[in-house]
Specification:
alpha/beta; TIM Barrel; 8-stranded parallel beta sheet; 4-stranded antiparallel beta sheet; 15 helices; 12 strands; 8-oxoguanine deaminase; Metal-dep_hydrolase_composite
């Protein structure tokens, strides 16, 4: 099959999985609790957290991933996206890095503490730097840059507008969280007098160069008027945080661009792309029953759907002239016995989510579930030590 395409992640969160202080909480209290850990992020933590997430993604069939990094702690270098990019090159995954941002701190009416926000000047300057240094718009590019203010409750309208102007001037895509929870909707109505979708429409943040994470709480009119904007559906995260269920079938039937994503590892809590495909199928059928998307349609969303959302027509498909981003599966195991449709097997069966082989840009990077480009055991040991040091430092402070 063509490799899976993951359209929304927060790789740094692989350092903060299973934090007891934030379990069983909805989005806003969950974020408020985790900001206090995230303010201790370092370049080393960002690099190793990316390697952990990339390793999981590659082993479970993802060949192209985006990431949304928006935490830049005070006192740390502002070049954390560079550390992610270095990790992507070292491990061999096709990568869309998004320069996330938070400029609206708690003291200014936003949600995050002042310790993890930046000035708008800092954000825009670094955004322009990253585009100039790294963005490759050519076919088969291994690295592209997008601009990604975090959310309506953590950035100003001015930053959204100036980011849009910069992105369209430089020809890069834009990304943000949108319509994830009813709390977000209430915040937007209270602060801006607009629903989240209406705010994006006002700011000219709709179109084929935009994709949104979640897109759960759209009304009927909004679902059919996405204006080419893509949606990253994050089933596991939405279930764990009790955010709601994305209107997946309705988006597809309206001609919208739908994709599947793992979201951040603190809310998923894994980066298992194949499992996310299964959960997308099951959650869709929970909502739509016999009118839900079938196995083939879900696999299409997970591959070419993701490529389309990220503005790529050179991958996400098995065809002449397309990128050699390919995943192979062995359906001879007993867990697949008795199933008469291989596509149903891939979506509904199996005791493992590890591919037989993952090929990125013509290079074998995973074979029999083992990462070939780096030592995943050493990555895990180092990452675990860094993560434990950060969490214990916060708990002892």
């Amino acid at each position: 099959m063509p490799g899976f395409v993951n359209t929304h992640h927060h790789l740094y969160q692989t350092m903060f999985r299973g934090i007891k202080e934030v379990q069983e909480k909805p989005l806003f209290p969950w974020l408020i609790g985790l900001y206090e850990f995230w303010k201790y992020l370092t370049p080393e933590a960002v690099y190793y957290s990316a390697l952990v997430g990339f390793s999981e993604l590659l082993r479970t069939g993802c060949t192209l991933t985006s990431d949304h990094h928006y935490v830049f702690p005070n006192g740390q270098p502002g070049t954390l996206i560079d550390d992610q990019i270095r990790a992507a090159k070292d491990i061999g995954i096709r990568f869309h890095a998004t320069r996330g941002s938070m400029s609206l701190g708690k003291d200014q009416g936003g949600l995050p503490p002042m310790s993890v926000i930046q000035t708008e000047a800092q954000i825009l300057e670094d955004s322009d730097r990253l585009i100039s240094k790294y963005h490759d718009a050519s076919d088969f590019s291994m690295l592209r840059i997008a601009l990604a203010p975090c959310s309506p409750f953590s950035v100003t309208k001015r930053l959204m507008s100036e980011t849009k102007d910069l992105a369209r001037k430089r020809g890069v895509m834009m990304h943000t969280h949108l319509a994830e929870t009813t709390d977000e909707e209430a915040f937007c109505i209270s602060k801006f007098g607009r629903r989240p979708y209406e705010l994006m429409d006002e700011l000219e943040w709709l179109g084929s160069d935009v994709w949104f994470a979640h897109g759960i709480h759209f009304n009927d009119e909004e679902v059919i008027n996405l204006k080419g904007s893509g949606i990253a559906h994050c089933p596991s995260s939405n279930m764990k945080l009790n955010s709601g269920i994305c209107r997946t079938s309705e988006i597809v039937k309206a001609g919208g661009k739908l994709s599947i994503a793992v979201d951040g590892s603190a809310s998923n809590d894994g980066s298992n792309m194949w499992e996310e495909v299964r959960r997308a199928y099951l959650l869709n059928h929970l909502k739509y029953g016999t009118e839900g998307l079938n196995a083939y349609e879900i696999l299409k969303v997970a591959t070419r759907g993701g490529a389309d959302v990220l503005g790529r027509n050179d991958t996400g498909r098995l065809d002449t002239g397309k990128a050699a981003d390919i995943i192979l599966f062995d359906l001879n195991g007993i867990e697949y016995a008795g199933c008469h449709d291989p596509l149903v097997s891939l979506v509904c069966l199996g005791n493992s989510s590890l591919t037989k082989m993952t090929i990125v840009n013509g290079k074998i990077v995973v074979k029999d579930g083992v990462l070939l480009t780096l030592d995943s055991n050493e990555i895990g040991k180092t990452a675990n030590k860094i993560a434990n040091d950060i969490v214990q430092y916060h708990r002892n402070s």
